[in-house]
Amino acid sequence: SELLQDGRKPANPAFWWVSDEGEEVKWSFEELGSLSRKAANVLSEACGLQRGDRVVAVLPRVPEWWLLNVACMRAGIVLIPGTSQLTAKDISYRLQASKAKCIITSDTLAPALESVLPGSQLLRSKLTVGRGSRDGWLNLKELL
């Protein structure tokens, strides 16, 4: 069994994710706590959300999906999950019905969603998860 430099055993990860390609993300409870506090700050400060506000997340099951779930719980924000298979019409309906103030998606899905966003009057902020940046969208990685 592996030991840390000071002789302690490493803690069991709070979060352990493996992609189809074998890429791994492991967060300790401490890291998940710290990252989710930072993500909660991004939602309340950069995205301008308050307790009780609703967020629609159209994301594949990437680590940020779980991170944002915990961050929303911390900030008292209601997360409305949507799968990546939703059509533009589905997303438009969810945004209107929920009165969501923010939409979160991956940089690869963002272009497909942009067509429905102008119809959503309450939408205040758009956040992407991933490496690429996009005009008019905030980027979670940069803000963290």
Annotation keywords:
5 helices, 35% helix, medium-chain fatty acid-CoA ligase activity, globular, 144 residues, alpha/beta, fatty acid metabolism, Rossmann fold, ANL_N_sf, ATP-binding, Mitochondrial_ACSM, two-stranded antiparallel ribbon, five-stranded parallel β-sheet
Characterise this structure.
Helix 1 (29-46) packs across helix 2. The chain is of the alpha/beta class and 144 residues long. Helix 2 (63-75) links the parallel strand 3 (54-58) and strand 4 (78-82). The longest helix is centred in the first third of the chain and has 18 residues, at 29-46. The chain has five helices and seven strands. It has helices spanning 29-46, 63-75, 88-98, 110-113, 140-143; strands at residues 15-18, 24-27, 54-58, 78-82, 102-106, 125-129, 138-139. The strands form two sheets. Strands 4-3-5-6-7 form a five-stranded parallel beta sheet, with helices on both faces. The model has no long low-confidence stretch (mean pLDDT 91). It has a single domain, classed as 3-Layer(aba) Sandwich (Rossmann fold). It is globular and about 60 Å long.
Topology:
Blueprint: E1 15-18, E2 24-27, H1 29-46, E3 54-58, H2 63-75, E4 78-82, H3 88-98, E5 102-106, H4 110-113, E6 125-129, E7 138-139, H5 140-143
Helix pairs in contact: 1-2
